[in-house]
Amino acid sequence: MHENFYKLMNRLSNPAKVASNLDWKRFSGATLLSLNIHRNRIGIAVASHPALGDGCHELEPLRFADDHITIDKNCLERFRNIIDQYKVCGVVVSWPLQHETGRMGAACGRVLYALEEIVDKTAGGEDNLLSTARPLCLWDSGHILPKQKNNPDLNVDSFGRCAQYGKSSTKKEHFASKEQYHEDELTVVQQVWNDFAKQHWPDVFKARSQKVKVTPQVKTQSLSTYAKKRAPMGSLVQMSSR
């Protein structure tokens, strides 16, 4: 197990490298694969470069009946087919940190477990999801770490101390199983891609937001004015004499 963990750590890349790989290959039809790993399913989406305007396409997720992730031959075959069909050049995996503490809870453990299983059951071929030729990164779509750093009350030091831990909560009810251990249930796979794309290609999204749809102005006129324009000269004399 430790061997698979170290192999996985060696294959993780910086998110900027994943985005750069798509920049180089965007005109060849390449896409990025987004994964959102839950306790009973894996959300899957593919997207080309946002400058092409094709959008994000969510695929049928991988589902697990026993609420336990099982990476078998069918799962690996599904990933290989997606890689070949959509020319996947990089992988973005949701990294569900705990919203309140910024720590790696059970949801992050499931992500690592699933990726380690893929490392353990695949070879080093080009069709492998975790191939070195296909960079993979973990993405914090909730921006939990920046919020922790910017807020002094939420900042955790090297000893694990945080000022927030000494304050009483205003919540009347606290469900630890929902709020800490299932952070992955709060996001969807398209949200992971949209946030990743907005952070790495802000100019593309800024240009889209600045486009103003110009609608032709239709001049309204009264019925009598319209009738005068359409009526012959003789009828106009009759209308004016009335």
Write a concise synopsis of the structure shown.
By secondary structure, the chain is α/β, with parallel strands linked by helices. It is built from ten helices and five strands.
Describe the protein's architecture and organization.
This protein has 242 residues and is α/β, with parallel strands linked by helices. It is 41% helix and 14% strand. It has 10 helices and 5 strands. A 5-stranded mixed sheet has the order 3-2-1-4-5. Strand 1 (31-37) and strand 2 form a beta hairpin. Helix 1 crosses helix 4 (106-121) and helix 7 (189-200) crosses helix 8 (202-210). The protein is globular, with a radius of gyration of 27 Å. Residues 212-231 and 233-242 have low confidence and may be disordered.
Characteristics:
disordered C terminus, globular, alpha/beta, 5 strands, 242 residues
What order do the helices and strands come in, and which of them pair?
Layout: H1 2-11, H2 15-25, E1 31-37, E2 41-47, E3 56-63, H3 73-86, E4 88-94, H4 106-121, E5 136-139, H5 144-150, H6 176-179, H7 189-200, H8 202-210, H9 223-230, H10 233-241
Parallel strand pairs: 1-4, 4-5
Antiparallel strand pairs: 1-2, 2-3
Helix pairs in contact: 1-4, 7-8
